[in-house]
Amino acid sequence: MENVYIKNPQFESEPQCYLLEGGIYQAFECESFDSFRERLWKLFMALTSRSQTTDEEQRQLQITLDKLILMVKGCHYFLHHKKRLNYEEEWIDVKWLKNPYRCLKKYRHRDDEKLNHHLAHFDYGFTQLSRAEVQNFTEAFKSFFSLMDLSSWLNLFDDYKQCLFENESLFEWSVDDTPLKTYAQLLKLIEACIIAVHWADIDYPPPNAHLYLSFFNMTYESYRDANPIEMCSMLFFDVSYDELRRDILELYAGCHEPQQGFTMKPNDLRFNLRWLIQTGWLLLQTNYFPEDWLSPDRFNWLICPIPESEIKYWRPKNLSVKQREKLAKTLSKVYFDVEVHDLLCAVENRLICYMNEKDRACLDIENLKTRDRLLKILDVVTVILIDFCQRRTRTDGIKYPKGIPAQEIVDNQKVENKTKNR
């Protein structure tokens, strides 16, 4: 008979599936998280009471125990082969760092704790996993076997089977005096296995997945594309800092100023402004980022919003020196007491009014606040990207925009100054 503990994966490109084939996949066959959790609860209800069960109920309890044994063996198999093969993977074997742009506590929204809970990005009702175990589910496996080794767990399950067979409780057998703690440990292991299955199926959610899917109704292409820094970079894929800033000023020009027109199509401007607002807000969320999200050299491409020749002397036009030095505080104050969905609607309404000259309204206090808010977000995002570009040690992978003629910048500055005086 083949010994599964000494075999190797058939294909080097599929180590994830190989690591889960020692029992985890089999244990969750035809099972969801909710159904497995229900099975576990019914098992412990039966083990801690002497209630009569039907033959079918007895059969289901035995199936549950068999699945638990498969799962525990599978987790041990996973750890054994991961260590034996010296296998490391960028999604789980990565350091996590505090988000340097995280919203300061005094400026956080009332729903911030709910949105940024370390379990919020999973669709399941997980309750047992710690932050470290969510970031690397193998930590939950290790924690489980630090309590008892594999043979001790299997012996315990044998006692569970005997209790069921004799229709007696754990307390009468004196084999498990803390069944609730055992239940919690097994539930934690089930939660970790669910994450492992998603990891192996290339469906591993980034820590801010729910913010894209539920909060903004957006999608992301891949785990790495959910990185807000990637979003900052992609904002400038077809537009430069000067172009976007000029269009913001044009959108919020005074009603007595003649329309100069945008540098881009109105629908493109709408898309870019939505992207800008969402990117700034996402930077403030999520307590921890994977280390490679914050490493300039780990990006395939960085798109700099400023021409290379101007970076040395460029300064953000709407940030003071103090605001540039404390970007997290600056961005926190920009979004403080602002419902981001209302902000998105306000900008779109302004664009609609701009396109319909009959409905064009003069700037009120709220319009001025929105304009200044957009300009500050743009400056913060630009400062972050320039910092990443300057810290990049790789000589390739940075895209720079073409410079805008100096006269166009001067003319645009005149428009801004006139608007400020109205």
Structure commentary:
- The chain has two domains: 15-93 and 136-205, no CATH class; 212-420, no CATH class.
- The protein has 19 helices and four strands.
- The protein has helices at 15-20, 24-27, 33-47, 55-84, 112-115, 131-135, 138-147, 150-166, 170-173, 179-200, 209-215, 228-235, 241-251, 266-283, 321-325, 327-335, 340-355, 365-391, 406-420, and strands at residues 96-98, 288-290, 302-303, 398-399.
- It has a two-stranded antiparallel ribbon with strand order 1-2.
- Average residue-wise pLDDT: 89
Query: Largest sheet at a glance?
Result: 2 strands, antiparallel
Percent of residues in helical segments? 55-70%
Q: Note poorly predicted spans.
A: 406-416, 418-422
Rough outline: elongated
Alpha-carbon distance between the two ends: 86 Å
The count of domains is 2
What is the helix tally? 19
- Over the alpha carbons, how many angstroms does the gyration radius reach? 28 Å
Sheet-strand content, in percent, reads under 5%
Strand order across the biggest sheet? 1-2
Q: Helix- and strand-based class?
A: mainly alpha
Spell the H/E element sequence.
HHHHEHHHHHHHHHHEEHHHHEH
User: How many strands?
Assistant: 4
